[in-house]
Every structure is written in C-alpha cells, then in structure tokens.
Amino acid sequence: MPLFVNVTPGTTISSTTTLSASTLNLLGTPTVNITGTIDGGTLTIGSNSVNSDAIQNLAVTTGKVADNAVTNAKRATMAANSIKGNNTGSSATPVDLTVAQTKTLLSLVPDETTIETSGTTIRLKDNSVTSAKLSTAPQTSSSTTPTVNVGTSLTWDLTPSGNVAVTLTFGANDDGKTVLVKVKQTAGGTLTATFSASGGKTMQWQAGSTPTLTTGANKADLFVFTCIGSNVYGKQIANFNA
Questions:
Q1: How far apart are CA 214 and CA 51, in angstroms?
Q2: Do 150 and 131 form a contact (C-beta atoms < 8 A)?
Q3: Are 221 and 215 in contact (CB under 8 A)?
Q4: Most-buried pick from 18, 34, 156, 236 (CB within 10 A)?
Q5: Cβ(197)–Cβ(168) under 8 Å?
Q6: Which pLDDT band, with edges at 50, 70 and 90, does 169 fall under?
C-alpha cells in the first residue's frame, strides 16, 4: 500500500525516520494519498474527514444504508398539498402526486352525473338518486313494541301477537322520506295499535283523527308515514285480507 506524504519545505526526514505524531507535526499540514488495497488490518478515518469529493459518484448503495436510517428531514422537499405515490399503473419511482391525481388514483373523481363537488365537499347531485337505489327490502317483526327505523327499510311487515305500540324513527337525513307499514291482525282479530315518533317529532293524522285497526281474523291495515320537519304525517289504508 503506497503512502505519499507532502513534506513542508525545510523539513528533513530519512528512510529511518519514524512517522510519529511529533514528526508528522513537523511536516506542517501533511496530506496522505492511499491507493490500492489495505492488506491485513484496518484503516481508521477520523471524524469529519470524509467530504463529498472523497466519495465516488453513485458509490453509496442501498446495502450501505441502515434500515430506517433516512429521516424525513433528509428527504427532498415536496410540493405543497401533495403526497408520495405511484399512479403509473406499474412499478416506478415515487413522485409527488397532486390532490387531483390522488383523487383519480383513489377513484374519488366525481362523475358529475350523480356526484358533484362543492368546495372541498363531495356530495350527491340533487335529484340523482333513483327509487332503485333506495332500500325496499321489507323488514318483518312480531314484536309488540317494534321500532320502525326508516334508515333500515322503507317497508315494514308487522305481525304482533298482542296489542302493538309502534315507534317510528326518522333519522337526521330521513326528512321527506315515506315509509309503508303493514299491521296484521291475529286469528282473534281484536288487536289495537298505537304509533309514536321518536326524536321529539309529533304525529299528525289525516283529519286529525287517530285511526284504529280493522277488526276481524287476519285482517291487515296499511299505514303510510312521511316526515317533514318536526312532524310525522300518517294515513291509514284499511281493511285488507292478509
């Protein structure tokens, strides 16, 4: 391993001179050039002694960097309101994705037919939801105290075994919805039914008259309820053979 030392003019050393610390100090500011390989042993480099010019371009490989060693502060800065990602459809180097590119990547771009944007809000367009998109699967209950939840279904089939007290529940987003409730008599045909609305809403019956169930074995009555504001408006369609 060749060793080259630049000697300060006026300093004399010979082939027998030991390059001790004190001798090297006589050389002023020596520089050391090491070429080839180090055979048998190690070379210790002092702190702050390796600069960028001493590292060959592209010489630092992934294997030389410890896992989890690169902090966010050491990464390149990113454009405002962007995230790192890959939207190319194949393996690629990450890039800074804009908000619009991120929405497209996550399939959040409105189709402007049923979905639109309003500021930073994504919402359904007015009059865009068809009846086919509403839940119409009937819900059944034989309870004598059933809760008819409009958010669960718009059709309810009640077959109570005794006098029934029905609670109608319209949620915050159910204003204007209409629910159909069927109440079937037992074979005895003498059941009664009462209806109330949760959430502080007031029941309002057609003509202001509270209806009664049709009596008779296995008879059925239909009730239609619509919530508008703080009122639930109800109408009875009576006397069906169930």
A1: 96
A2: no
A3: no
A4: 156
A5: yes
A6: very high
